[in-house]
Hints:
The chain is of the alpha+beta class and 249 residues long. It has a single domain, classed as Muramoyl-pentapeptide Carboxypeptidase, domain 2, CATH 3.30.1380. The strands form three sheets. Strands 2, 4, 5, 6, 9 and 10 form a six-stranded mixed β-sheet that branches. A two-stranded antiparallel sheet has the order 1-3. The chain has a two-stranded antiparallel sheet with strand order 7-8. Strand 7 and strand 8 form a beta hairpin. The N terminus is likely disordered.
Amino acid sequence: MRKNSYKFLLLALVCMMVSCKQNQVPDGQNQQANTPVFVNITDVVPDAILEIRYFGTYNFVGTRIDGYEQPTALLCREAADSLLAVSNDLKAQGYRLKIYDAYRPQRAVDHFVRWGKDLGDTLMRTYFYPQVEKKDLFVKGYIAEQSGHSRASTVDLTIFDMRTEKEVDMGGTFDWFGKESHPDCGGDPETGVYRQNDTITATQFANRMILREAMLRHGFKPYDCEWWHFTLKNEPYPDTYFDIPVREL
């Protein structure tokens, strides 16, 4: 009888081990990958224009970035819903949203870090960081080992003018490493008052304010180094850095 009890116990342990193994999340994914954390931005904001720079080669690295398997954009549901409110606000003013990047997997950030340490690779310097030595990119904060984008509540974007059918002139390009990208370049973003300068025009500064004010009205906060970068104030995963690849859900 005792031998049979031992056999039964051993069989139960084996079954439990098999069951646990089957329920493990594959390498490279966060446990929360099995919960409805992410949504496709275009499922929530159908008329958003996507230009996912890290899926292509026109970015500061010059190659497709690890983790970008499809040219799509993901966010957590809360951030996407707030972005819809921004979109509705701006559509009433004659604009559409254009997305450069949203959720960014940790493996992509790791790719940036590896690239940053390779001082000989300056393929795209002319286009994105001509005024900055590559060795200074970490010191000046342009590259870091973690990014708020990986928490799924941050988006990089601009606006598209439906009347002219052109991207609005912001006086600077996405991912430009320099003071020209700062929201306070050319004026005070808190008051919207332009300051005469040699960098951006009054119209370009006003265009930046259109985007900024709409984002702030609907729950996002700005970043003081990039006019295109906004994070949901009440982000639901403030301590989680996801590493799920970017692909259509």
